[in-house]
Amino acid sequence: GMIGYGMAKGAVHQLCQSLAGANSGLPSGSAAVAILPITLDTPANRKSMPDADFSSWTPLEFIAE
């Protein structure tokens, strides 16, 4: 299933929000930036999620550029 994927996506989002907070412990002037996980259009993903809307997935060619 996709439980692990969803948990990882939520954890990255929460970590970035926590680091961006005023009391995060980061030095003054620091920034917190996250590149959130995306769904890549791969044969394995299509097989594991056959009913999904593939049009919203990121093609591998986009990552390669």
TrEMBL record:
Taxonomic source organism: Eurypyga helias (Sunbittern)
GO molecular function, one term: NADH binding
Record keywords: NADP, Oxidoreductase
BP term (GO), one: tetrahydrobiopterin biosynthetic process
Subunit structure comment from the entry: Homodimer.
Name this protein carries in UniProt: Dihydropteridine reductase
SUPFAM superfamilies linked to this entry: NAD(P)-binding Rossmann-fold domains
Signal peptide location: none
Family membership: Belongs to the short-chain dehydrogenases/reductases (SDR) family.
GO CC aspect terms: cytoplasm
InterPro entries referenced in this protein's UniProt entry, alphabetically: NAD(P)-bd_dom_sf
